[in-house]
Amino acid sequence: MRLVIATCSVDYSGRLTAHLPMAPRLLMVKADGSVLIHADGGSYKPLNWMSPPCKLVVDDDIWSVTNKAGEELRITLKEIHSDTAYELGTDPGLIKDGVEAHLQELLAEHVQTFGEGFTLVRREYPTAIGPVDLLCRDADGKHVAVEIKRRGEIDGVEQLTRYVELLNRDPLLAPVRGIFAAQLIKPQAQFLATDRGLECVTVDYDLLRGMESDVLRLF
Amino acid sequence: MRLVIATCSVDYSGRLTAHLPMAPRLLMVKADGSVLIHADGGSYKPLNWMSPPCKLVVDDDIWSVTNKAGEELRITLKEIHSDTAYELGTDPGLIKDGVEAHLQELLAEHVQTFGEGFTLVRREYPTAIGPVDLLCRDADGKHVAVEIKRRGEIDGVEQLTRYVELLNRDPLLAPVRGIFAAQLIKPQAQFLATDRGLECVTVDYDLLRGMESDVLRLF
DNA sequence: TTATAAATGTCGTCC
DNA sequence: GGACGACGTTTATAA
User: Fold this and answer.
1) How confident is the model at residue A217 (pLDDT cuts 50, 70, 90)?
2) Using the CA of A48, which nucleotide's C1' is the nearest one?
3) In b/e form, how buried is each residue of A134-154, taking b as 16+ CB within 10 angstroms?
4) What domains can you pick out in chain B, each with its CATH number?
């Protein structure tokens, strides 16, 4: 990794065109040739960048970074304040502990969240257009398809609509109702879901987790 | 901006929990206190980070970065290979061109792009499921909803479908047709749009911008 | 402050 | 390589 502190201007031409006036910044050149231009503030997103795979060509005080798609990042250097390089090696990588998968797991074990007498048919119930998060039966034995999101937005309602429509074509399952479950459901999604005849359930993740703890505490 | 090359392990605890095993990495500490941890590869996204506003507390070989929401980024340092700091000042910022807002602006002023005799009713026409980019009337005075994208993909067609369906329920507006306008329309989006009875218009951004220049040149 | 849509989104996964 | 969905999405903008 090469780190250059330099006063520079930058022009990007690709999916859009963008320009950075002359100012002091950090240029980070990674081992794969990618380049990031950071200011001393903002967030983790660089002011400008070129993602790998790409190629850096240095011609005097002009750096030109290009990729296969014909995008170009052109850096014009006025003054270099520092220029250092380090060998870091490949990173072992990040270990994550997920959230959404866990939410589905918890709800699968507590389908009564959706109503008295609910039972689980199966998780990830397969269909031609992808798996339904949960397929349940209500107290009357009727099928219910459940789509689970952390945040309920319009896309999720569309997804559930497609599932319910498809499942209702199966005479062994029909009639199938749909429940849209999320930690937070946005007003527009709520409107669309209601308009489509789908029910909305707001899920309390911490409460569910608490129920899980209670179950564990019994042993 | 402080740049530290160090062998470290990292633990994040907040919206999820994540862990980075001990390895050499770049730690970037910005003037606002935010911290980025970069490996020598990947893209512009750091392996881990804390966004401002946040506070960094250094206790010997443990760095703890916390924010108001109670999230914590804990960095355990084993060995520091380099530690430097620079004063960059505030950045003048990025100037962008070619974004969707500008495209909408240009099309709003040149609705005849969609057909002879087109007039604009209004931009961002409000509905219960969100604003329609452009609502126009054609030469016959019939309403036309226009959805504008930089790149026309399936989700944009879905969006327009919803708008047209909703607008057609309003007897004051019906019948409403839909036009899907984009700089580039993907074949799948084109197919779906046609299947839904929506028209597709490919927009030449540079041409539109040229027309704008022509108008300006008259003054 | 809150909510909503765009993003040079990025990133994984599946096909 | 393309399509699809999640993301500690982040970011900008309007209400």
Assistant:
1) low
2) C8
3) bbbebeeeebbbbbbbeebeb
4) 2-85 (2.70.180.20), 100-217 (3.40.1350.10)
Q: Using DSSP bridges, classify how beta strands B143-152 and B176-185 pair: parallel, antiparallel or unpaired.
A: parallel
Residue ranges in chain B modelled with pLDDT below 50: none
CB atoms B45 and A41 under 8 Å = no
Tell me which residue has tokens 């008295």.
A116
CA distance A77 to B191: 47
Q: Render pLDDT for A32-89 as a digit per residue (tens, 0 to 9).
A: 889 999 999 888 999 999 999 999 999 999 999 999 888 899 999 999 999 999 999 9
Q: Tell me the three state secondary structure of residue B46.
A: coil
Contact assignment for A44 to B36 by CB distance below 8 Å: yes
Picking from B196, B195, B113, the residue whose alpha carbon sits closest to that of residue B148 is: B113
Q: Is B98 left (phi over 0), alpha (psi -120 to 50) or beta?
A: left
Which residues 145-164 of B are in CB contact (within 8 Å) with A?
Answer: 155, 158, 162
User: End-to-end CA distance of chain A, in Å?
Assistant: 52
Determine the residue of chain A that is closest to B87 in CA distance: A40
Report the pLDDT value the prediction gives residue A153, as an integer from 0 to 100: 84
Distance from CA of A193 to the nearest CA of B (A): 11
DSSP string of chain A? Answer: -EEEEEEEEEEEESSSEEEEEEEEEEEEE-TTS-EEEE-SSS-SS-SEEEPSSEEEEEETTEEEEEETTS-EEEEEEEEEEEEEE---------EEE-SHHHHHHHHHHTGGGGSTT-EEEEEEE--TT--EEEEEE-TTS-EEEEEEEEEE-HHHHHHHHHHHHHHTT-TTT-SEEEEEEEEEE-HHHHHHHHHTT-EEEE--HHHHHHHHHHHHHT-
Which residues are B56's β-sheet partners?
Answer: B65
Q: What is the mean pLDDT of residues A188-197?
A: 88
**Strands B2-13, A95-97: pairing kind:** unpaired
Q: Which of A183, A140, A177, A136 is nearest to A160 (CA)?
A: A177
Question: In Å, how far from its chain's centre is CA B29?
Answer: 26
Size of interface A-B (CB pairs under 8 A): 167
Query: pLDDT digit string (tens) for B132-148?
Result: 899 999 999 999 999 98
pLDDT at B127: 84
Residue of B12, B15, B30, B44 to mutate for A, most A C-beta atoms under 10 A: B44
Question: Residue B18: which nucleotide is closest by CA–C1'?
Answer: D8
Helix axes B100-109, B205-217, angle to 10 degrees: 60
